[in-house]
């Protein structure tokens, strides 16, 4: 009987292998993709089917709450949020700042959901969390000019490319092409913290300046500001790259987008002796960083600042750039600013402006397009 049973199993396995086909995506994966693509009604329908089968999926309930909120279904969104908490969702910091839930923020039910998350995370105890700096291993990408190996004595200017939240050193590293690979060494530091939403939602690597549980509503402890730490990391990458490659000068050029624009501005403030010029598009520039002493040092080192922003930007308000330009002007500097009709993304017009900055500042050629505006 045993030999017959084994033979029968082998025949069954062989039959199944002959008929197997690639497995399709789960309902949860389909719902996540639809939500990321902006197909909110479709995502809601799929999430509802998925959660009927697996009501213990806290992340699924949370994403459904976001989809409901984005389609104006406030009552359903709040119920889904509480279901998410019941199923294990406890990321109060992320929930507080998630723009998808903006319409729920002042509702008492939303506040109760936040309180439930905090109580669960603390286990009902008088929990205290303390943050300390730690050492880790990071990475930065290098893009060398095509002729780098031809003349062993030639040295090149270096440009630092800083990516936005959720991107990567290879994702934004592609900007080396539009900015012009000739005559320039590009380095692209990877932000040190994983962007949870990109890893779990888009299923690809994405990085950010801030730790996943960082609470932006609280005051920073001395020495623990993630943007300060990120700035030191950029300096570390620059120092290492200058040791490895034939850089022409101690001072570098910096280009950044979104969170990378904030980092470019911040790096120029805190390391002005290392920056010749920086170009920042669609960035945010928190007021506490721009101290009088930092602005004075940037002025003394004659750092050239170029800012751009889309008038229709719904991710970062254009007022961020208005305010930072005014702060620099108030400190006696003359920053360049240009406004675009588009939004947060890198439109062809933004890329052309960035290339003009690279030509006029890094390669010292006559700009191919306007690098400053009204």
Structure description:
The protein has 374 residues and is an alpha/beta fold. Helix content is 45%, strand content 11%. It contains 14 helices and nine strands. The strands form two sheets. Strands 1-3-2-6-7-8-9 form a seven-stranded mixed beta sheet, with helices on both faces. Strands 4-5 form a two-stranded antiparallel sheet. The radius of gyration is 25 Å and the shape is globular. The protein starts with a helix and ends in a 12-residue tail after the last helix. Residues 1-18 have low confidence and may be disordered.
User: Could you give the count of β-strands?
Assistant: 9
Q: What percent of residues are in strands?
A: 5-15%
Q: What is the SS-derived class? A: alpha/beta
SSE sequence, one letter per element:
HHHHHHHEEHEEHEHEHEHEHEH
**What low-confidence regions span 5 or more consecutive residues with pLDDT below 50?**
1-18
Q: C-alpha Rg, in Å?
A: 25 Å
Number of helices: 14
Shape summary: globular
Distance between the termini: 89 Å
């Amino acid at each position: 009987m045993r030999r017959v049973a084994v033979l029968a199993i082998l025949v069954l396995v062989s039959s199944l292998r002959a008929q197997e086909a690639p497995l399709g995506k789960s309902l949860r994966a389909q719902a996540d993709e639809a939500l990321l693509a902006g197909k909110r009604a479709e995502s809601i329908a799929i999430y509802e089917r998925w959660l009927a089968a697996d009501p213990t999926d806290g992340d699924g309930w949370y994403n459904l709450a976001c989809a409901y909120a984005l389609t104006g279904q406030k009552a359903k969104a709040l119920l889904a949020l509480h279901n998410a908490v019941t199923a294990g969702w406890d990321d109060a910091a992320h929930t507080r700042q998630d723009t998808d839930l903006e319409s729920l923020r002042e509702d008492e039910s939303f506040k109760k959901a936040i309180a439930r998350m905090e109580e669960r995370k603390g286990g009902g105890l008088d929990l205290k969390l303390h943050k300390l700096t730690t050492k880790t291993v990071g990475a930065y990408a290098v893009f060398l000019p095509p002729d780098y190996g031809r003349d062993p004595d030639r040295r090149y200017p270096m440009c630092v490319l800083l990516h936005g939240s959720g991107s990567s050193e290879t994702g934004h590293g592609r900007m080396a092409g539009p900015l012009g690979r000739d005559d320039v060494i590009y380095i692209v530091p990877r932000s040190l913290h994983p962007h949870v939403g990109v890893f779990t939602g888009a299923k690809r690597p994405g990085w950010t300046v801030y730790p996943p549980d960082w609470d932006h509503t609280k005051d920073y402890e001395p020495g623990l500001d993630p943007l300060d730490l990120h700035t030191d990391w950029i300096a570390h990458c620059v120092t290492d790259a200058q040791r490895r490659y034939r850089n022409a000068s101690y001072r570098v050029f910096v280009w950044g987008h979104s969170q990378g624009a904030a980092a470019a501005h911040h790096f120029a403030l805190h390391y002005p002796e290392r920056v010749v010029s920086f170009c920042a598009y669609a960035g945010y520039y928190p007021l506490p960083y721009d101290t009088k002493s930092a602005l004075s040092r940037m002025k003394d080192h004659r750092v050239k600042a170029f800012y751009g922003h889309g008038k229709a930007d719904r991710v970062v308000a254009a007022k961020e750039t208005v305010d930072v330009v005014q702060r620099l002007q108030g400190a006696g500097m003359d920053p360049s600013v240009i406004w675009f009709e588009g939004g947060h993304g890198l439109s062809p017009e933004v890329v052309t402006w960035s290339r003009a900055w690279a030509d006029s500042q890094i390669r010292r050629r006559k700009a191919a397009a306007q690098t400053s505006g009204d």
